[in-house]
């Protein structure tokens, strides 16, 4: 078993051992999973508190939807502020897919009787 001082000195040197080759993908996946879990936790607490405080004023479906949307918007805004270059790259990657789904040149069918 290694001591804590060995772990700290090895970590401060910045070298990666042979068993830590694909740490980037695993670290990114861990961050995504942790962020998703944190968002679900915050969302659950918020919905529970709002539903407990004002159960007669607003329908629970409206509360759940609004809190979920606000939580997602806050998370996206935080991520966009923290990593603007990554956000731009993600937008540029998704743009062709969004444009293919919302193609404006396709013929529209007229419905009627």
TrEMBL record:
Biased composition (Gly residues): 14-24
Keywords on record: Membrane, Transmembrane, Transmembrane helix
Transmembrane segments: 32-54, 60-80
Domain of life: Archaea
Record's keyword annotation contains Transmembrane: yes
Keyword check for Transmembrane helix: yes
Start and end residues of each stretch annotated as Disordered: 1-24
This protein's name: Uncharacterized protein
Native organism: Halalkalicoccus tibetensis
């Amino acid at each position: 078993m290694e001591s804590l001082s060995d772990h700290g000195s090895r970590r401060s040197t910045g070298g990666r051992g042979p068993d830590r080759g694909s740490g980037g993908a695993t670290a990114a996946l861990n961050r995504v999973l942790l962020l998703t879990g944190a968002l679900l936790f915050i969302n659950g607490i918020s919905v529970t508190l709002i539903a407990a405080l004002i159960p007669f004023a607003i329908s629970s479906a409206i509360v759940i939807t609004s809190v979920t949307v606000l939580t997602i918007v806050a998370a996206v805004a935080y991520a966009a502020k923290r990593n603007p270059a990554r956000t731009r790259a993600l937008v540029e990657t998704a743009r062709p897919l969004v444009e293919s789904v919302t193609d404006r040149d396709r013929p529209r069918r007229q419905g009627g009787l």
